[in-house]
Design goal:
The protein has 117 residues and is α/β, with parallel strands linked by helices. The protein has a single domain, classed as STAS domain (Transcription Regulator spoIIAA), CATH 3.30.750. Helix content is 33%, strand content 31%. The chain contains three helices and four strands. Strands 1-2-3-4 form a four-stranded mixed β-sheet, with helices on one face. Helix 1 packs parallel to helix 2.
Amino acid sequence: MESVTSLDLHPPEAVLVVAGEFDAAASIELRGRLEDAVRVGCVSFEVDASGVTFVDATALDTLVWLRNLAVPLGGDVVVTAASENFRWSASVAHLGDAFGLGRLPAGNETPDPPTPR
Protein backbone atom coordinates (compact mmCIF):
# COMPACT_ATOMS: atom_id res chain seq x y z
CA MET A 1 0.00 0.00 0.00
CA GLU A 2 1.27 3.44 -0.84
CA SER A 3 1.16 6.51 1.33
CA VAL A 4 -1.71 8.96 1.11
CA THR A 5 -1.36 12.41 2.65
CA SER A 6 -3.51 15.49 2.80
CA LEU A 7 -2.44 18.84 4.17
CA ASP A 8 -5.08 21.46 4.87
CA LEU A 9 -3.70 24.92 5.57
CA HIS A 10 -5.50 27.50 7.70
CA PRO A 11 -2.63 29.73 8.92
CA PRO A 12 -1.46 29.68 11.62
CA GLU A 13 -2.83 26.13 11.80
CA ALA A 14 -2.62 23.11 9.52
CA VAL A 15 -4.00 19.59 9.57
CA LEU A 16 -1.91 16.74 8.19
CA VAL A 17 -3.55 13.37 7.53
CA VAL A 18 -1.28 10.45 6.75
CA ALA A 19 -2.46 6.96 5.79
CA GLY A 20 -0.82 3.84 4.44
CA GLU A 21 2.96 3.53 4.46
CA PHE A 22 4.57 6.57 6.05
CA ASP A 23 8.15 5.97 4.96
CA ALA A 24 11.18 7.62 3.33
CA ALA A 25 9.47 7.93 -0.05
CA ALA A 26 6.45 9.68 1.47
CA SER A 27 8.68 11.88 3.64
CA ILE A 28 10.66 13.27 0.71
CA GLU A 29 7.51 14.59 -0.96
CA LEU A 30 5.93 15.71 2.29
CA ARG A 31 8.86 17.80 3.56
CA GLY A 32 8.55 20.26 0.69
CA ARG A 33 4.84 20.69 1.33
CA LEU A 34 5.40 21.16 5.06
CA GLU A 35 8.15 23.69 4.46
CA ASP A 36 5.77 25.64 2.19
CA ALA A 37 3.12 25.50 4.93
CA VAL A 38 5.51 27.04 7.46
CA ARG A 39 6.52 29.64 4.88
CA VAL A 40 2.88 30.80 4.55
CA GLY A 41 2.49 31.07 8.33
CA CYS A 42 1.40 27.66 9.60
CA VAL A 43 3.08 26.86 12.90
CA SER A 44 0.54 24.67 14.72
CA PHE A 45 0.15 21.26 13.12
CA GLU A 46 -2.37 18.57 14.00
CA VAL A 47 -1.42 15.14 12.67
CA ASP A 48 -3.94 12.38 12.09
CA ALA A 49 -1.94 9.17 11.76
CA SER A 50 -4.85 6.84 12.46
CA GLY A 51 -4.58 5.29 8.98
CA VAL A 52 -0.84 4.63 9.07
CA THR A 53 -0.09 0.95 8.45
CA PHE A 54 3.71 1.27 8.50
CA VAL A 55 6.05 4.01 9.71
CA ASP A 56 9.84 4.17 9.52
CA ALA A 57 12.49 6.31 11.19
CA THR A 58 12.61 8.73 8.25
CA ALA A 59 8.92 9.50 8.65
CA LEU A 60 9.30 10.06 12.39
CA ASP A 61 12.30 12.28 11.64
CA THR A 62 10.11 14.35 9.31
CA LEU A 63 7.71 15.05 12.18
CA VAL A 64 10.58 15.89 14.53
CA TRP A 65 12.03 18.21 11.86
CA LEU A 66 8.63 19.90 11.52
CA ARG A 67 8.33 20.27 15.29
CA ASN A 68 11.81 21.82 15.40
CA LEU A 69 10.64 24.37 12.81
CA ALA A 70 7.32 25.11 14.52
CA VAL A 71 8.22 25.37 18.20
CA PRO A 72 10.61 28.36 17.91
CA LEU A 73 7.82 30.15 16.01
CA GLY A 74 5.35 29.59 18.85
CA GLY A 75 3.72 26.50 17.35
CA ASP A 76 3.78 22.75 17.86
CA VAL A 77 3.13 19.40 16.23
CA VAL A 78 0.52 17.28 17.98
CA VAL A 79 -0.71 13.87 16.92
CA THR A 80 -4.50 13.89 17.34
CA ALA A 81 -5.11 10.29 16.26
CA ALA A 82 -2.71 7.39 15.76
CA SER A 83 -2.81 3.80 14.60
CA GLU A 84 -1.28 1.13 16.79
CA ASN A 85 1.65 0.87 14.33
CA PHE A 86 2.34 4.59 14.61
CA ARG A 87 2.04 4.55 18.41
CA TRP A 88 4.42 1.61 18.72
CA SER A 89 7.05 3.14 16.41
CA ALA A 90 6.87 6.53 18.11
CA SER A 91 7.09 4.91 21.54
CA VAL A 92 10.11 2.82 20.59
CA ALA A 93 11.77 6.02 19.37
CA HIS A 94 10.83 7.75 22.66
CA LEU A 95 8.73 10.34 20.80
CA GLY A 96 5.39 9.66 22.46
CA ASP A 97 5.62 12.65 24.79
CA ALA A 98 6.90 14.96 22.07
CA PHE A 99 3.82 14.24 19.96
CA GLY A 100 1.29 14.08 22.81
CA LEU A 101 0.50 10.40 22.36
CA GLY A 102 -0.05 9.92 26.08
CA ARG A 103 -3.25 11.95 25.97
CA LEU A 104 -4.80 9.80 23.23
CA PRO A 105 -7.28 7.08 24.18
CA ALA A 106 -6.45 3.46 23.38
CA GLY A 107 -7.08 2.36 19.80
CA ASN A 108 -7.70 4.58 16.81
CA GLU A 109 -10.25 6.82 18.46
CA THR A 110 -9.72 10.54 18.45
CA PRO A 111 -9.38 12.30 21.82
CA ASP A 112 -11.93 14.68 23.29
CA PRO A 113 -11.79 18.11 21.66
CA PRO A 114 -9.27 20.48 23.27
CA THR A 115 -10.52 23.01 25.76
CA PRO A 116 -10.93 26.44 24.10
CA ARG A 117 -8.12 28.85 24.91
